Amino acid sequence: MKARDTDWDGVRLHVVTGKGGTGKTTVAAALALALAAGGRKVLLVEVEGRQGIAQIFDLPPLPYEERKIAVAPGGGDVHALAVDPEEAMLDYLEMFYGMRRAGRALSKLGIVDFATTIAPGFRDVLVTGKTTEAVRRRSKEGRRVYDAVVLDAPPTGRIVRFLNVTNEVAGLARMGPIKNHADLVNGVVASPETAVHFVTLLEEMPVQETLDGLAELRAAGLPPGGVFTNMVRTSLLPAEAVEAAAAGRFDPDELALGLKAAGLADGADAAAVASALTEEIVEHARRTELERQERASLDAAGRPRYELPLLPDGVDLAGLYELAESIRTQGAA
C-alpha cells in the first residue's frame, strides 16, 4: 500500500512520551488509529503495566499477546500488545538460547522476576526489544507485518534512559546474544525509522519538561519527533474582548448595559452579573496570554506541533476517533 504523505514519512516506530497527566496514552491510542486509517495495520504497545489501552478502548485487561482491538477509519486495523517483562524475558531466552522451557522453570522459582526487579534497566531492554522486533518483523512473503508501531512509552523524565539503555548494555556486553540483541534494538531506536513524540499541555511545567526532554533526546543522539499539545481550549470570546480584558480595559458597565438590552438581567442584578462575568473574562484573558507564551516557547523548539482539542465530555471511544481525525487533518499521520 502506498504511504500517505505525512510529516513522518518513513517513520515506522512512533514513541509517545509526556509528563504525567498530559494524556500521553490517549494521544498514543489516537495516533495509532490515525496511522491505521485507510487500510493499514498498526500495533499499539503498552509497557507500564497500567492497562491504559484497555481502559481507553473500553476492553477487558489485555493479555501478553498481540490482538486486534479496533478498526480505523477506512478499514485499517489497530492491534495492541501489553508487554509483560517476565514473558518478554522468556521470549528472549527462546530467541537467543532456545531455553523457553528452562525459562519457565526459572520463572516458577522466582528468578526471572528477581532479575527484572533488581535490574530495572534489564526490564527496559526486554520491553524495547519486544517493540523493535515488531517493527522489524516480516511475513513469510517478505512483507512487513505492521505498517507502523506506536509505543506508549514511560514519562518524559525517564524516556532517554528507557530508549538508551540498550546502548549501555551493548557497551557492557562486547559479544554474544546480548550484544547482538542490543545492537538490533539500537539499529531501530536510533534510526530515521523512529520518532519520539512529546505530549504536553499549554502549562508551564509540562512545556518546560517537554523542552528539557527534547534537549536530552538530541544530546543522546535519539530522533526527536513532533509535539502534541493536548486538551486545547477554544476561546468562546471575541479576540477584541480578550485583548481588552488582558490590558485592563474591559468595561463591566458596558457589559451590564448589554445584559439589560438582551433582557438577561435588570437593575442591580445586571451590575452584579456583569461584575462576576468580568472577573471570569479577565481570568480567561490571563490564561489565554499564558497559553500564547507557552505556544511561543514550543514553536521555538523547531519541532512540528499539533493541537488536539479538549473534549468536554471526556475521552470515550467516539472522542478517540475525533482526536485521530484531528491528527490526520494536521498531517501527523
Automatic annotation (TrEMBL):
Membrane-spanning segments: none
Limits of the ArsA/GET3 Anion-transporting ATPase-like domain: 13-178
GO molecular function, one term: ATP hydrolysis activity
InterPro entries xrefs: ArsA/GET3_ATPase-like, ATPase_ArsA/GET3, P-loop_NTPase
SUPFAM superfamilies from the UniProt entry: P-loop containing nucleoside triphosphate hydrolases
Entry-linked Pfam families: ArsA_ATPase
Name of the protein: ATPase
Taxonomic classification: Bacteria, Bacillati, Actinomycetota, Actinomycetes, Streptosporangiales
